[in-house]
Structure formats: structure tokens, C-alpha cells
Amino acid sequence: MARGQKKNTGFSEKELELLRNFSPNTSSKGMAVFWIHALYVVIVPIWIQARVHQYPVGEQMIYLVLGTLLQAFALQFAYKNVKNVQKEKIALQRTEAVSAEVTAQVGTKVARQELEDRILWRKGEVAENESIHFSILYNNCIYLGLYLLFSVIFFKNWAPLTNYTFSIIVAAGAVAGISRTK
């Protein structure tokens, strides 16, 4: 096939849009939301280490930057996994409400097939947004809870760098691992 030519899939543009709505891929907007949330959530351990454990932030900046990036990657991975599982469940739960909403908006002005397509599109949009936000909340709660548990209780007597390193590895690793089991 020559460069620039589209592959003929046999689907119309509307059908392709519906397929994209229900694919497990996360939109670029969703990925940006995931990365932003992951980056600001993983900064919380730095603040805790600096204030509670008296971690010398200026002297250990390379460890903090590496730890932050690794944690953000693990959280983003977990966000995506949980979102994919929850999207289907949310879509099933919101079917009646979305159908009523779309029917109230367009009424009997459109053909039945067009109405069903609009309902499917809106259901995918609602499920995408709700699953993104649920995934962020769910994973952040688990991550911060585990981090506090290990940092403040289990590793509290360890040296600050060791405490930070093991706490973030356990918390981020557990969240990424838990996300794969759903």
C-alpha cells in the first residue's frame, strides 16, 4: 500500500467513531489527565519525607527526580488498567440514564438508527469520563494509603533515603500490581 493511502476497513466513519469509543485505548486527553494526576500525587511523598522524616531534599535531588518519574509511570499504568475494567461496567450501569437523556434531547426528530448511534456514542463518552475519574481516585487512595503505612509505620526508623526508596517502591509497585488483577 502506498504511503498516505487509507486502508479500506469496510466501516463507515460513524461506525469507526463508535468502535473508537468502546476500544480499550485511552484518549490523548485521558492520558494527559493521568500523567498530570500521577505527577502531582507522587510529589506528596517528597513533602512527607522533607517535613516528617527530615529528608535533605536539596542534597538528594537526583533520587527524588528518579523516584518521582518511576512512581508516576507506575501510577499512570495503574490508572489505565483500572479505567479499562471500569469503563465497561459503568457503560452498562448508565445505559438507561443515557438513553433517557439523549431521547429527551432529540425526541422523535431523528430516525431510530440515528438515535441508537447517538445513545451509543454518548454512553461511551460518559463511561470514558467516569472511568477516568474513578480510576484516579481509586489508585490514589491505595497508593497514598500504602505509602503512609510503610513510610510512617513500617520503615519509620530507617534512614530517610532508605525509607523513601522502599516506601515508594512498595506503594507504587503494589498499586501497579493490583491494577492488573481486576
From TrEMBL:
Keywords: Endoplasmic reticulum, Membrane, Transmembrane, Transmembrane helix
Membrane topology field: Multi-pass membrane protein
Any one GO CC term of the record: endoplasmic reticulum membrane
UniProt function note: TRAP proteins are part of a complex whose function is to bind calcium to the ER membrane and thereby regulate the retention of ER resident proteins.
Stored Pfam families: TRAP-gamma
Protein's cellular compartments: Endoplasmic reticulum membrane
Record flagged with keyword Endoplasmic reticulum: yes
Phosphoprotein listed as a keyword: no
Protein name per Swiss-Prot or TrEMBL: Translocon-associated protein subunit gamma
TM ranges: 30-48, 60-79, 136-155, 161-179
GO biological process: SRP-dependent cotranslational protein targeting to membrane
Entry similarity comment: Belongs to the TRAP-gamma family.
Domain of life: Eukaryota
